Amino acid sequence: MKRIEFHDREHEIEEIRDILNSEPSLITFVYGPINSGKTALITHLIDRLPEEYVIFYINLRTKFLASYDDFIESLFELEMDTNATKIKRKETLAELVSSVTKVTGIPVTKEFINYVFKDNKPKNAFSYIIKLFEEVKATGRQPVLILDELQKIGDVNVNGSLIYELFNFFIDLTKELHLCHVFAVTSDSIFIERVYSEAMLSGRCEYLLVDDFDYETNATFLKEHGFTNDELEVAWEYCGGKPVCLLKLIRVDDTEKIAKKMLATRMNQLNDLLDYLKYTKPRITIGDTDYTVEREDIIIILARFASAECIDNQGLDRPAKHYLIKNNILFLDPDMGSIKPQSRLDLLAIRKLMDGM
Ligand SMILES: Nc1ncnc2c1ncn2[C@@H]1O[C@H](COP(=O)(O)OP(=O)(O)OP(=O)(O)O)[C@@H](O)[C@H]1O
Ligand SMILES: [Mg+2]
Questions:
Q1: Which of 57, 247, 249, 333 best tests ligand 1's pocket when mutated (most atoms within 8 Å of CB)?
Q2: pLDDT for 96-135, tens place per residue?
Q3: Does CATH place domain 10-209 in 3.40.1010.10?
Q4: Does residue 59 line the site of ligand 1, with CB under 6 A?
Q5: What is the pLDDT of residues 29-81, one digit of tens each?
Q6: Sign of the CA dihedral 85, 86, 87, 88?
Q7: What's the predicted TM-score (pTM) here?
Q8: Which of 94, 215, 237, 345 is in the most buried spot, having the most CB atoms within 10 Å?
């Protein structure tokens, strides 16, 4: 199968490089609509960073997080003694960090694991990580911590909120200790909105939007893959700059046929959702209160996209808005105060459905 090279993102890469070139002082939230290429950008960068950066990349997507222990386990990677006779056991933190460059997880040995899990307190795990990062720093290198799919910790409770403890830890690593760069990646815009309004983070974090490609980037990408001008216009009309859809179009012969099929599929899904709402009223929790989602409110919001690609975040029914965001139909950008469909396909499907009502 044809391998598709990573394309562009020069602007975003430059922004991240600028952050990495300065002393760690803010937490960076990398956010954007689903499938916009956040993880691809981060992994592309990790592969290219000079050795002076020691990357700890943890993707929570595949982790099962039902408890505090699950969360701590997801962060750490136990160093196994695979060949104990030949390789000396790493018994100190200095020995442990001596060989690390790019790791998926915070390395820990049997010697330290009890300390990390002691008393079920995040404090112990976090102080272990700080000591480990200090050892990395002592070798003249710069630790970088990246947590992908961070919103998955939203539901884990530990004597209060784990998010709160974790954010305090991030603030320690950046603003207080200037020890480690912290990147938190997520496509969950409700989570980002929550982060955005969190008083403790105010002035302590920055936001980096990784959006779908713009028209020019799209055109260069698709032309590199042999698209004619007509095919390019069809791709833009149906898929906008959503990398995952573009990859699909690159791999097929009949661009228009497949693009139309993608739209039909999305319309079916949305149509079914609207039908489902005739029979049930889902519940959405906002703060500590449960609200029911009304179909009419959903339609009022969707109808706004008949003539606009992007609307103001204010003045919308909040349960309906949250429902549409949680179901990955709409994307909220709290930094811009705006809401738009998750993709061009979503926008077209919404318009067609609203047209027929
Ligand atoms: N700049 C790019 N060049 C080429 N392919 C890309 C690029 N960005 C993303 N892709 C491809 O698009 C697909 C979706 O990207 P990715 O998984 O990184 O998105 P994401 O924003 O992390 O998604 P999610 O919101 O689900 O976390 C992947 O197959 C990826 O390889
Ligand atoms: Mg991702």
A1: 247
A2: 777 777 777 888 887 788 888 777 777 888 999 999 999 9
A3: no
A4: no
A5: 999 999 999 999 999 999 999 999 999 999 998 888 888 788 888 898 877 65
A6: positive
A7: 0.92
A8: 345
